[in-house]
Amino acid sequence: MSQIKILFLGDVVGKIGRIAIKKILPSLKKTYKPDFIILNAENIAHGKGVTENTLTEMMDLEVDFFTSGNHIWATPEASTILESKKFPIIRPANYPDNVPGDGYRICSIGAYQFLIVNLMGQAFMKENFDNPILKLKQILEENGHQKISGVLVDFHGEATSEKHVVANFFDGQVSAFLGTHTHVQTADEKILPNGTAYITDVGMCGFANGSLGVDLRNVTKTMLTQISAPHEIPERGICQINGIFVIIKPENGKAQKIERISKTIEIK
Question: Is residue 46 among the annotated active site residues?
Fold first, then answer.
């Protein structure tokens, strides 16, 4: 293996997103022949959080690894899942140190060791997260002695400006810097001057004709009345599949290619 080929799928939202992944992943694998498949799972259990069953469902499809975000804690199982080594999942690294789970993992991809890091942005977030630049610097320094052939960062944040700043700060130090969280895929995929593959937001795998994967009716009702109504995730309809395909050169950890994936599939 002279290249590391990674397929990264955006936030998977609920059952419709999981069914869509099941239907479309075989063709994506045939087209891209990835060495490693990652998906963001923070919304995988009916819109918020994770469960053992939903993660197992994706692992049975040969998904290799899961990143997450601030919604990871929405289910009672979350802390147990994150504390267990049974599931290849991480939570954002810039949560306090006493929070369950790992903020990064080193994974084997063929003969290579690959570092995957999850981070939260600070801008427009109600939580008081640690500075993501300082946290990522710390992680890279702590693992500097390791023979690592590449680094991928899932940066889960609201602000496009923050993602640009942090990505460019680490240009050349990480192989891929992929934004998540907004569920809206951006069209700015590029390789930065020093070799880091970048996109502001990968997008989502979820119900297409709603608001960020959520049915419009209750969202609209809340906006009109200011009375909170529960989010509903449709189980049928048109589902969008957003992802990124990245090729990394293991000899120097630089990105060779980044390709944006955007498809739709009908779930009946």
Answer: no
